Amino acid sequence: MQKGVINMNILFFGTKSYDKEFFEKLVGSGAYHDLELTFIEPNLTPETARLADGYLAVCAFVNMNLSKSTIYTLQKCGVKLILMRCAGFNNVDLEAAKECGIIVMRVPGYSPEAVAEHAMALVLTADRHMHKAYIKCRENNFNLSGLMGVNLHGRTAGIVGTGKIGTAMAKICRGFGMRIIAYDMYPNKDLDFIEYVSFEQLLAEADLISLHCPLTEDNYHMINKDTIQQMKDGVMLVNTSRGALIKTADLIQGIRDEKFFAVGLDVYEEETGIVYEDMSDRILEHSTMARLLSFPNVMVTSHQGFFTREALQAISQTTMDNALAFVEGRKSGNEL
Predict the structure, then answer these.
(1) In sequence order, which residues have a C-beta less than 8 Å from that of residue 194 and are 6 or more positions away?
(2) Distance (Å, rounded) from C-alpha 89 to C-alpha 124?
(3) pLDDT per residue as tens digits for the range 90-114
(4) Is 310 a catalytic residue?
(5) What is the SS3 assignment for 191-215?
(6) Pick the catalytic residue: 242, 258, 270, 310?
(7) Does 330 qualify as catalytic in the annotation?
(8) Distance CA 55, CA 45 (A)
């Protein structure tokens, strides 16, 4: 740790207006006077990492490239700390960071309810075709053709991963009168309303499958051609966790085969270069995303599950607390 350091300059990559608003407001309160923040628009990549020259710390987000090449460049620039203003860190080469003596900190929890509520918003939108109904009514078309949904009450919700977000989603589904089954390698015994089952049983019984687990080598493409075949016909699938949990090509084929009644995606494999960017005047380079957007029963959002005022306040607070802990030479508990 940098014991004795009085001031820390932090370079924020990929800054959006809301990032600047919440972090500047927090630092302006006076509690973090030892921290000097600089905001730039480019994302952190191997090519832009050199912009960190002279900075002790950088702050990055889940959509950025913190590969070995990026880490090595940051080391040459004198960076000692990487602050991830998010929970996910599968985009960070932790071995390279350790090798370079760079500490990596994250925000392990900010607002599980924010993500869970967005997951249910995706369910309801895709199920009841809210996105289509909105467009029809805007054009004075009040015909109900193509808008029929199904009741959630009395159906079975399958929650994959019962951490804080999965638990929040399970509680929401319970409020809708659904039966709750779940798969988790480490079941939470305190959740007495959840029936833990095998992954295979969850696939076979769930009317709604909602993914809430971190991405690992073991669950990469856990939703694929084989697991889709094990699902009920007319199943609903929602992913607000990590895009690579689903093999997109197999999902597209499943949608074409009418296996799914509705699909809601806040994350997807082709996020890099797309998510958080305005692509409205461009042709999408990747055909899989264009195909997903073409299906009437698929609802896609731009990795915005975290995007609530409460969550942004918590993210900025924890990120600055992490930085302050580094300055003061103590552990924050959020080191990776």
Answers:
(1) 159, 162, 170, 180, 181, 182, 188
(2) 29
(3) 889 999 999 999 999 999 888 899 9
(4) no
(5) CCCCEECCHHHHHHHCCEEEECCCC
(6) 242
(7) no
(8) 16
